[in-house]
Design brief:
By secondary structure, the chain is α+β, with helices and mostly antiparallel strands. The chain is built from one helix and two strands.
């Protein structure tokens, strides 16, 4: 399992996961970066174009 979470200063001290036994935690800086990482999860059916990528609240 791969868990993607946006790497933002206000979230750094309260990550959903610090480790993912049997999987991997991937921190991404912005939406463009996660689009580049999308091929990293070839079996994933999630779309990186979704407004709700990961669990971090979106700051507009």
């Amino acid at each position: 399992m791969v868990f993607f979470e946006r790497d933002v200063p206000w979230q750094a001290g309260a990550r959903d996961l610090a480790e993912l036994p049997g999987g991997e935690l991937v921190l991404y800086p912005d939406r463009d970066a996660i689009r580049v990482m999308a091929p990293y999860t070839p079996s994933a059916s999630a779309s990186a174009s979704s407004r709700d990528v990961g669990t971090t609240p979106r700051m507009s």
